[in-house]
Amino acid sequence: MPELRIGLPKGSLQESTFSLLRLAGWDFNVSSRSYYPTVNDPDIHAMLARPQEMSRYVERGVIDMAITGLDWTLENESDVEIVDRLVYAKATRSPVRWVLAVPNDSPFQSPRDLEGKIISTEIVNLTRRYFEKHGVKVRVDFSHGATEVKVPHLSDAIVDLTETGSSLSANNLKIIDTVTESVTVTIANRDAFKDTWKREKINALVLMLKGALAAKEKAILKLNVPRDRLDAVLAVLPSLHSPTVSLLSDDKWAAVETIIDKSQTRTLIPRLKTMGAEGLLEMPVNIIIP
Predict the structure, then answer these.
(1) Bridge partners, 94 (sequence order)
(2) Same domain, 127 and 47
(3) 186-198 pLDDT per residue, tens
(4) Has residue 274 been placed in a domain?
(5) With contact defined as beta carbons under 8 Å apart, do 238 and 218 qualify?
(6) 163-177 core/surface letters (b: 16 or more CB in 10 A; e: else)
(7) Are residues 243 and 258 in contact, defined by beta-carbon separation less than 8 angstroms?
(8) CB 256 within 8 Å of CB 234
(9) In this structure, is residue 290 part of a structural domain?
(10) What is the pLDDT of residues 18-73, one digit of tens each?
(11) N or C: which end of the chain has fewer CB within 10 A?
C-alpha cells in the first residue's frame, strides 16, 4: 500500500498548522513527548521537525513533502519542489518579515551605515546575500536564539523574524529595513513529486488546505426577504458569484443565501434588517474551493 511521508512544523507554527489541517479534513494528534503524530488517514505517515531543518529532509527524501517556511527553504538552498504557498503564520494571515533592526538610539539609519559591523541572525545565508546586494561588507554571526538581546553589546545590528514588530519594540529596537518576506509553503521531494500517486495525494492535500484558508475569513449568510424588496437587498449583498435565491411556500417571500467576508457581517446584518429582511442567520464555512 503506498504511503505519503509528510513533515509538519514543530514550534510556533505547529498549533496553527494542526488547526488548519483539521479544517481541511485531516485530524493530526500528537502527545507532548512524541514526534510522530497520528492521523485519520491510513495513507499518511507524519513526523514533526523544526522548520529550520525541514527542507533538508525533503531534499534527501527522508520525507516526501512538508509544510514549512519559504525562508528556511531558501536559507538552506534546498533543491525541492515548491508546490504552493499558504499565507498564514503563528498569529496572522499575513507574510512574516525578516527585518534589519538596531537600538532606538543607534545612529544607523540604513544598511549602508553598517559597513564593517557585526550582524547577529539565524538566517546567515540570506543575510549575507542581502548585504552583498547592497555592496556592504559586514560580519554575519549565527544567533542561536534570543537575537534581540545581542545588540548593542554583542553585535551592532540584528536580522530577526517578526509578525507584528511588538517584540522588537519591547526590546527598544527599531526596524531600518526588510531583508526578506516569508510565507508558509508546501514543498515536495522532486522524485516523490514525479510519482503519480504521491503527486495526486500532495495536490489534493494542498487544495483542501487552501480551501480551509480561504474559508477562515468567510461566512454563509441566510435570510428571508419580502419579494417586493428582493432587488434592493440583492443590490447590497456581496457574493462569490451571485446570491442564491429560492422561492418560499409563501410567494410574497424569498430565501436568499450568499457567502460574505466575516468582517462585513457587523454592518451588513443591521442594514439588511432595516431593509425588511427576517430570519438572518450567519453560519461558519469550513472549505471554499473557487
Answers:
(1) none
(2) no
(3) 999 999 999 999 9
(4) yes
(5) no
(6) eeeeebeebebbebe
(7) yes
(8) yes
(9) no
(10) 999 999 999 999 987 889 999 999 999 999 999 999 999 999 999 999 999 999 99
(11) N
CATH number, residue 250: 3.30.70.120
Neighbours of 144 (CB within 10 A): 7
Query: Both 161 and 224 in a single domain?
Result: no
pTM: 0.86
What are the grid coordinates assigned to 93, written together?
A: 494571515
Domain check: are 48 and 104 in the same one?
Answer: no
What is the CATH classification number for the domain harbouring 121?
3.40.190.10
Q: Measure the CA angle with vertex 129, ends 124 and 134; round to 5°.
A: 130
* 13 and 67 assigned to the same domain: yes
Q: Which residues of 4-25 are buried (b: 16+ CB within 10 A; e: fewer)?
A: bbbbbbbebbbebbbebbebbb
Total domains, the chain: 3
State the residue for C-alpha cell 494542526. Answer: 18
The DSSP secondary structure of the chain, one letter per residue, reads ---EEEEEE-STTHHHHHHHHHHHT---B--TT-S--B-S-TTEEEEEE-HHHHHHHHHHTSSSEEEEEHHHHHHTT---EEEEEE---SS-SS-EEEEEEEETT-S--SGGGGTT-EEEES-HHHHHHHHHHTT---EEEE--S-GGGGTTTT-SEEEEEESSSHHHHHTTEEEEEEEEEE-EEEEE-HHHHHSHHHHHHHHHHHHHHHHHHHHTTEEEEEEEEEGGGHHHHHHH---SS--EEEE-SSTTEEEEEEEEEGGGHHHHHHHHHHTT-EEEEEEE-S----
Provide the residue range defining the domain that includes 174. 96-181
| Burial of 153 per CB tally in 10 Å (0-12, 13-18, 19+) | exposed
